Q: What sequence folds into this?
């Protein structure tokens, strides 16, 4: 049977070999199945290593210059108390602070165990800071930090107006002090200064904290099957996941296509193939074969995601139409990019030579990929609508909009499919010309100018 | 008899370089045509245009009654000059893949045909070996099978003997003859003219992209009458040469390819001259020397070439001493 002057049986035969020679190899199976499973299994190990990498319990002396003369003792107590608590001080209005703090402790490591020296309020900062350079030989006696509290940190100056900012404090440390240790000390200092400001204003600090804290409860979603916790975060992640899947499918198929075309050319089997097929049949067969590879990956990972959603009873998070549109836009995006990659593969003699010609294609693809993230956050913005209509950005941008919380109207999706189809056709038309001429060109690799000449020549 | 190939005023350029210029050609069905000429003459470009791998800038072309080989690729077998196989693919699956691309149905008959051909070319044990494990000569035989597996009406072989040892050269020549005797039209190109002389019934000579000769081998031989007699005196010395050079009709004596050679005058009768030379002095051997295709080629192009160019061309069409001697061993 013939279609557009091509023998479909030959196209199918080329596609079949292309698919089998890629997808039925150990390398592909390892890359597509084993590696993701390996990384999933690696996650607990990574968490363990992060935990093991927590900073050591740092010890030493903290010198406090309290120019306000109001908060020094309280600061001393807070800093010393750090060494007695296991959870870091994380200011949060949520009731789940303990839970958060517990999780953070695993990352932040043991609390610093410090002693404190209160310096005179008029102490020279420069002189006190010199201690940070001294080596006492005993870690517990060395000064690890100097805290210099402003005079108006607790009470504003006499000239200050209501609403003016209070004074603050400066922290000086040794270079080797871990940033996480400093963070915990600053948390304690912030809380102590805040409590003392409340007290200076005649307010009970704990009561004030209680009054300013509004406990947040999870948003509940009401569905036909009942009420459940909302998955706002997952909804936010969904467009990103879909875009990444699309990118992965396009890149994988395109890269394989590039590699196999170069292999066929460099092994000189290409002329044997051209004696049996037309260049167009060959190119289309190869594109379709690798489309199958990309589609297989896409379906496999999408399927895994759907299984996970089913397991957690969240299948309704993703509409089935999104999956259908993902497949349609994958097809269009893949054809646009893969045709160009096939042309590059036909134009060069080895993979190394392809790098310079791949540059513009990769640039377009990366730009397309990254631009789709802001689109997913502002799916109805004018610029997002325009981007979702203009190939080659359109498939990614439109899919990001479809998977967002504000799906576009159907006519926009249809229009985008239309413009992408035209883009894919143009890409194949252009690529076919380069492919036909390039396949039998050996020697010096072409530059962009030469490729344009080939297009005119073909 | 209808033509398997017809070309009319075909021209092909690559940028400023004219690869093929105004070639007219008719290849009757069932003939065995040899395309000869030095490397870079335009043979491969002509063949690629016949195969619709390249397309002419100008001129008409018909292959097996169709306007383009694209429409009759399944009826054509092609062994390109640049050999290539899927290195990681096993031999039998590779051949079956090529057979299917040529329109054969997958199944026991294709597998059997593949096995039979591997047996015939002396490679019965390589079916499940990867192509990359085969020697270059073996790969060439596998590729020949790929070109004939689908029993084509037209078989085009571009430099089929290059890289083969004398034994395999003889095997391949027998297989080509067999294909021809089976009624197929066979075209093969070579830059080693001895090979064409041994195999073809029709010669097309190409030089600098132009056809300079297109005749049956018999016609060429009759047109280019012998112009020299090779002789071997019983004893060394100038006596025999002097006697031969004194014969009426001998334009001069000299040495050619290690043979003593008497060049005949324009109107001298070659048959008579053999007798006269044999009688001039005691001779171990006297032989009428017919011009080879190489000589004819050199004679044709000599008008446009200087001495250095002629020497280079002669070396090119001989394909080096090794190629020529291999051809002789294989004959």
A:
């Amino acid at each position: 049977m013939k279609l557009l002057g091509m023998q479909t049986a030959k196209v199918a035969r080329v596609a079949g070999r292309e698919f089998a020679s890629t997808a039925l190899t150990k390398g592909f199976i390892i890359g597509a199945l084993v590696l993701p499973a390996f990384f999933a299994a690696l996650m607990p190990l990574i968490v363990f290593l992060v935990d093991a990498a927590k900073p050591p319990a740092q010890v030493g002396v903290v010198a406090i210059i309290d120019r306000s003369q109001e908060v020094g003792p309280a600061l001393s107590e807070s800093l010393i108390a750090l060494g007695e608590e296991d959870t870091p001080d994380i200011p949060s209005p949520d009731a789940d602070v303990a839970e958060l703090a517990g999780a953070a402790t695993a990352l932040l490591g043991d609390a610093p165990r410090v002693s404190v020296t209160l310096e005179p309020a008029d102490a020279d900062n420069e002189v006190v800071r010199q201690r940070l350079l001294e080596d006492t030989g005993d870690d517990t006696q060395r000064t690890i930090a100097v805290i210099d509290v402003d005079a108006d940190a607790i009470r504003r100056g006499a000239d200050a107006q209501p609403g003016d900012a209070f004074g603050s404090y400066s922290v000086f440390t040794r270079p080797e002090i871990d940033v996480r240790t400093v963070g915990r000390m600053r948390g304690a200092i912030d809380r102590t200064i805040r409590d003392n400001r409340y007290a200076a204003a005649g307010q009970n600090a704990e009561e004030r904290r209680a009054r300013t804290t509004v406990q947040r409860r999870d948003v509940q979603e009401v569905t036909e099957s009942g009420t459940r916790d909302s998955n706002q975060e997952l909804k936010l992640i969904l467009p990103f996941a879909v875009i990444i899947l699309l990118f992965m499918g396009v890149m994988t198929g395109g890269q394989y296509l590039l590699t196999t075309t170069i292999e066929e050319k460099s092994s000189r089997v290409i002329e044997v193939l051209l004696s049996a097929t037309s260049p167009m049949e060959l190119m289309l067969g190869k594109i379709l074969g690798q489309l199958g590879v990309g589609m297989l990956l896409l379906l496999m990972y999408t399927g895994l995601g759907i299984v996970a959603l089913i397991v957690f009873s969240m299948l309704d998070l993703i509409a089935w139409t999104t999956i259908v549109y993902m497949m349609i836009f994958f097809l269009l995006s893949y054809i646009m990019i893969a045709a160009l990659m096939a042309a590059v593969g036909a134009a060069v003699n080895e993979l190394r030579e392809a790098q310079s010609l791949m540059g513009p294609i990769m640039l377009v693809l990366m730009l397309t990929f990254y631009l789709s993230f802001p689109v997913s956050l502002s799916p109805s913005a004018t610029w997002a609508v325009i981007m979702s209509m203009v190939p080659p950005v359109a498939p990614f941008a439109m899919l990001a909009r479809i998977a967002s919380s504000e799906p576009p109207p159907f006519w926009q999706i249809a229009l985008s499919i239309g413009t992408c189809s035209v883009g894919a056709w143009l890409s194949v038309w252009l690529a076919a010309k380069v492919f036909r001429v390039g396949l039998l060109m050996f020697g010096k690799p072409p530059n962009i100018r030469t490729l344009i000449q080939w297009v005119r020549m073909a | 008899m209808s033509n398997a190939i017809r070309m009319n005023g075909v021209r092909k350029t690559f940028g400023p370089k004219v690869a093929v210029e105004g070639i007219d050609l008719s290849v009757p069905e069932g003939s065995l045509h040899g395309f000869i000429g030095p490397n870079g003459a335009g043979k491969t470009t002509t063949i690629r245009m016949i195969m619709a791998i390249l397309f002419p800038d100008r001129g008409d072309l018909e292959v097996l009654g169709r306007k383009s080989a694209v429409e009759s690729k399944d009826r054509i077998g092609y062994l390109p000059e640049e050999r290539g196989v899927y290195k990681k693919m096993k031999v039998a699956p590779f051949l079956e893949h090529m057979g299917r691309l040529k329109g054969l149905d997958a199944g026991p008959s294709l597998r059997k045909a593949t096995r039979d051909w591997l047996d015939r070319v002396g490679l019965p044990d390589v079916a499940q070996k990867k192509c990359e494990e085969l020697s270059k000569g073996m790969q060439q035989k596998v590729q020949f099978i790929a070109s004939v597996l689908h029993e084509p009406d037209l078989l085009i072989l571009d430099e089929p003997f290059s890289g083969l040892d004398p034994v395999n050269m003889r095997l391949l020549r027998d297989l080509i003859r067999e294909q021809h005797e089976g009624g197929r039209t066979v075209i093969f190109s070579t830059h080693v003219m001895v090979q064409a002389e041994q195999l073809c019934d029709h010669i097309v000579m190409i030089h600098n992209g132009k056809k300079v000769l297109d005749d049956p081998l018999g016609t060429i031989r009759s047109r280019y009458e012998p112009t020299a007699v090779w002789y071997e005196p019983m004893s060394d010395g100038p006596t025999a040469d002097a006697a031969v050079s004194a014969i009426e009709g001998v334009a001069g004596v000299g040495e050619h390819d290690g043979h003593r050679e008497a060049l005949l005058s324009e109107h001298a009768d070659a048959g008579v001259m053999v007798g006269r030379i044999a009688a001039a002095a005691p001779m171990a051997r006297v032989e009428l020397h017919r011009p080879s295709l190489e000589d004819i080629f050199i004679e044709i192009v000599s008008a446009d070439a200087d001495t250095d160019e002629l020497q280079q061309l002669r070396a090119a069409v001989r394909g080096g001493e090794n190629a020529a001697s291999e051809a002789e061993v294989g004959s």
